[in-house]
Amino acid sequence: MADEALDPRRTALVFFDMLKRYDYGPDLVSLLPEARPQVDACVQLMHAARAAGIPVFYACGDHRPDGRDLATAISDDELARGVAAGAARRGPDPASQAVIDELRPEPGDYVINKHRWSMFFQTELELSLRGRDIDTILLAGGSTEVGIASSCYHARDLDFNTILVTECLRSGRGQHVSDFFVQRVVGGIARVRTLEHVVQMLGTGAATVAR
Fold it and tell me: Domain count of the chain?
């Protein structure tokens, strides 16, 4: 692993659901304390990717305020909360679906609006990646065991190489849930690397391309 490098021409950074509704408090301005380490790591990753000339993508959950486009499958969690089959559900406040200020998209970045957990499901993400001959994805965001996991499985089936950046992942259910997926599950689907390692890979790859 020490000799790994990334070709910036074939690599993209994707931030998954780094949205105000998940990382800010009710005021949609202040970072939640538990989100701060992940956000700081994502900011560092973003700067490293931009310095290497890697395109940045944002996969963002996007739903109607009336909830008409939410998934309708019934789960045990919903039953435990007393949500009856066919019950009306509301979508999130549109303001809460914006990318957090710390990672605000720049002109030329890609914002992919998604309506299900997988960032590939019925979105233009695959088309946008293949249009740039990208075969490797740096994936950051969360929740780890939900959208990150769904997107990792989907990326593998589409023959994309995926690298999860450990410090840039978080689960709303607790660090132990995120750690279980990263340490026990994803190794058969994708690569897992620390932020320090990825930054090193980006620098090595950029230098190799420059030569």
Answer: 1
Asked if residue 174 is part of any domain, the answer here is yes
Answer whether 84's CB lies under 8 Å from 106's CB: no
pLDDT tens per residue across all 211 residues of the chain: 556 789 999 999 999 999 999 999 999 999 999 999 999 999 999 999 999 999 999 999 988 888 888 888 888 887 887 765 455 567 788 888 999 999 999 999 999 999 999 999 999 999 999 999 999 999 999 899 999 999 999 999 999 999 999 999 999 888 888 888 888 898 889 999 999 999 999 987 655 554 4
Residue 107: give the domain boundaries.
8-210
- Within a domain: 3: no
Residue 124 in any domain: the answer is yes
Distance CA 193, CA 1 (A): 9
Q: What is the CATH number of the domain that holds 157?
A: 3.40.50.850
pTM for the full model?
0.89
State the pairing for strand pair 191-193/136-142.
unpaired
Give the residue carrying structure tokens 């486009």. 69
